[in-house]
Amino acid sequence: MSDSKALTEVPAALKRLVKYIVRGFYAPEHALALDILIRNPCVKEEDIW
To answer: Where is the HTH TFE/IIEalpha-type domain (predicted)?
Structure first.
């Protein structure tokens, strides 16, 4: 078990896929919130809205 490596960052392709899905199915506000979270993974809720 000590040989297993955990990913510490989300791959760029997965980030792009999630962006496309959110932009296709959700409101623009949700897409903007996702963009903020992709750039800065640790954000307070007050700073997003």
So the answer is: 14-49
